[in-house]
What we know:
Blueprint lengths: L9 E4 L4 E3 L4 E5 L6 E7 L5 E4 L7 E3 L10 E9 L5 E10 L1
Amino acid sequence: IESFVVPFATNLSPSGGQTVSATPTFSWTGAGAGYAYSINVQDSTNNSIWWSGFLTTTSVVYAGPALTSGATYGYSVIMFDTYGNASWVDESFVVQ
């Protein structure tokens, strides 16, 4: 990554520590054509537990290891332009 992308993903869901199922669906508003996205989920100690790979859609269902009920997790929506430059936004959620 050489530089930051000026636009950021917005309207992230889940957000603000929202309670979700054990297989949450992540969604966001992107910047339009020409951008790719990825989701990186972290446990409470900030260790990465799942990466979505590169996406051209603005939603993805969690497909990582089982999440613990009652635990809080963080995640980042990373947006890439066609040159590989990136921006990211962080959020959190709690598993039911």
